[in-house]
């Protein structure tokens, strides 16, 4: 079972169910309801099947075989046979699609939910099934996939898009662009795996990363001003301080990432584990920042529930899969 959880990259599923639950709540849904619980199951099915497909295709296309950091992965080590993985992943993809269709038909706007889920599947499958690893457009399809999956959850509880939902969609898109286009490339830099960093200069890459993350957080700050402007002055000061500290912390982590990912990493491959750890911290910081900003809209209890569930799940799965607490061996 552990090998299959590694194949599905189960440790990161908390980000997927937080994404779906957040958009579901934005549309007016309730976590502690039949649909809310069903959506958590859907998010796990979506994550396990699509990330399993990505792991399988990366192996079949030869990327993981050439990466020394992935020699312990179940397909590379031979603990799972490719033939087995193909059958299991295809069955899970079918079940995930069927399950999402059934949920969509019971949603507030079945048509838009079905369209969003279909587009999420199309872009996700496009990314997983051989999209160029060195194309500068590489982050686009997976960004669109996650964006539409979020909208799928939104239309399970809402009939139409609001300004707030559009802003949150933009925030998620910018977050995914940074995670895939910047963090993902840093993590695999200096391995034999093909990498965008082999095509552009390090200075250009670092500048793009800083600009992208600042814009990402500023969108979150704008959402905060819309939601917290009419609240008590003490609460407004609180969110301003959280926003400021989040941006400062993010810039500090980015400096660490770029220093170790692009300078020290060139001469010391052991530094990769620190890059992975800081990437994980950046992802948690960015996700939880949006949750805190959305407290006036989706409720403190819901936010605390998602935060606690996310941390407990992430730490537990890292321990089960890789024997670590924060940095998975990916």
Task: Tell me what the structure shows.
By secondary structure, the chain is mostly helical. It has one domain (about 1-320). It is about 75% helix and about 0% strand. It has helices at about 1-5, 15-25, 35-60, 75, 80-105, 110-130, 140-155, 165-185, 200-230, 235-260, 270-295, 295-300, 300-320. Helix 9 (about 200-230) packs parallel to helix 11. The longest helix is centred in the C-terminal third of the chain and has 30 residues, at about 235-260. The protein is globular. The model has no long low-confidence stretch (mean pLDDT about 85).
Concise synopsis of the structure shown:
With 330 residues, the chain is an all-alpha fold. The chain has helices spanning 2-7, 13-26, 34-60, 74-77, 82-105, 110-128, 139-154, 163-187, 202-228, 233-262, 272-293, 295-298, 300-322. The chain is built from 13 helices and no strands.
Task: Name a few traits of the molecule.
330 residues; mainly alpha; 73% helix; 0% strand; globular
Total DSSP E strands: 0
Low-confidence regions: none
Strand content: under 5%
H/E element sequence: HHHHHHHHHHHHH
- Coarse morphology: globular
Number of domains: 1
Nearest-integer average pLDDT: 85
Question: Main sheet, how many strands, which sense, barrel?
Answer: none
- In angstroms, what is the radius of gyration? 19 Å
Give the N-terminus to C-terminus distance in angstroms. Answer: 18 Å
Number of H/I helices: 13
Q: What is the structural class?
A: mainly alpha
Helix content: over 70%
């Amino acid at each position: 079972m552990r090998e299959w959880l590694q194949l599905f990259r189960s440790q990161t599923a908390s980000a997927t169910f937080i994404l779906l639950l957040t958009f579901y709540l934005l549309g007016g849904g309730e976590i502690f309801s039949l649909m809310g619980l069903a959506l958590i199951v859907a998010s796990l099915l979506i994550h396990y099947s699509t990330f399993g497909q990505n792991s399988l295709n990366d192996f079949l296309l030869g990327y993981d075989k050439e990466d020394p950091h992935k020699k312990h992965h179940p397909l590379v080590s031979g603990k799972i046979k490719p033939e087995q993985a193909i059958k299991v992943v295809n069955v899970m993809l079918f079940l995930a699609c069927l399950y999402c269709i059934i949920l969509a038909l019971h949603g507030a706007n079945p048509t838009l939910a079905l369209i969003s889920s279909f587009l999420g599947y199309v872009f996700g499958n496009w990314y997983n099934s051989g999209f160029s690893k060195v194309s500068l457009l590489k982050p686009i399809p997976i960004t669109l996939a996650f964006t539409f999956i979020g909208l799928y959850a939104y239309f399970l509880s809402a009939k139409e898009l609001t300004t707030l939902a559009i802003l949150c969609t933009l925030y998620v898109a910018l977050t995914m662009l940074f995670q895939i286009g910047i963090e993902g490339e840093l993590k695999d830099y200096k391995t034999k795996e093909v990498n965008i960093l082999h095509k552009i200069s390090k200075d250009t890459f670092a500048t793009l990363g800083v600009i992208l993350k600042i814009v990402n957080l500023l969108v979150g700050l704008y959402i905060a001003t819309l939601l917290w402007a009419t609240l008590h002055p003490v609460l407004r000061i609180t969110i301003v301080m959280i926003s400021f500290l989040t941006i400062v912390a993010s810039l500090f982590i980015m400096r660490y990432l770029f220093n170790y990912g692009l300078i020290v990493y060139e001469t010391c491959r052991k530094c990769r584990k620190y890059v992975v750890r800081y990437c994980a911290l950046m992802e948690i910081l960015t996700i939880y920042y949006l949750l805190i900003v959305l407290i006036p809209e989706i409720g403190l209890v819901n936010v605390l529930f998602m935060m606690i569930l996310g941390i407990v799940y992430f730490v537990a799965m890292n321990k089960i899969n890789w024997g670590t607490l924060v940095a998975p061996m990916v």
